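Can anyone check this?
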Amino acid sequence: MRIAVCVKQAIDPTIVRFNIETSSIEYIYYEMDSVDESALSEAIRIRQRISGAEVIAITLGPPRAEELLRTCLKKGADEAIHLCDQAFNNLDVYSTSIVLAKLIARLQCDLILCGKESVDEGNGFMGAGIAEWLNLPLVTAVTEVDILGDRNAAIVRRRVKGGDREVVQSSLPAVLTIDGISCKRIYPKLRTVLAGLKKEITKLDAGSLGIDVGSIEPRIVVLSISQPKSRLKKGMTIDSNLPPAERIKLILSGGLQQKGAKTVEKPPEASAAEIIQFLIDNRIISKVGG
């Protein structure tokens, strides 16, 4: 069984800054997309339960993306493929999905995993695009995957609105997008990391895939990047009719007023009736028969 995992490098959102004067992004540091890392972890978990399965990490990007694939190998991927060509530089997510689908079709994978949505663009298109071009079933927001014994189908658990879970059965091959919040990441052992340092990374260009990139028209064009508009925080309003001492207390507390409390200092047996009456008076509970 061959499991392909589509991964990408994303800008670290914790340190990136936008320069208003130059209208450009600064402090750019690329790292493995956290959602794709969850997809890789789920692929490794599946491989651990199925004998003979192998995990193939795939990325499309510039030469620096090789570091990403090395990370995948150190985490336990069996193979890594780097689609690297200057012709790929201006691809959008639509055209990228076409190129990845061409490669996955050649690899004859039984299962394709992608992150539900990347941390940078967050459009969630990649998995859907690959499924469309390969005419395969698609299940999104997956939290857990169980491959059936005949390896022709999978029981998939997915996260839906409100934190509920939905269980579906899908035939294989299929494309699954992994939910990065619910799926736990795998932390490799030292011997796995050392083995990953020795593995080779396969590099392919557009010619080796037989793809004429010029014939693929991008559907998304970035026109500009701008700083989000700042939103004014609602300020507190202090009632001018209050005594000065009360107004100072409100200013120091940020406008928060302490709610009155009632303390019952009696033994439990004696205070039970008083507490129940307090709950009834404040309509927290209703009086039986009332």
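Reply from J.R.: I decoded it. The mean pLDDT is 86.
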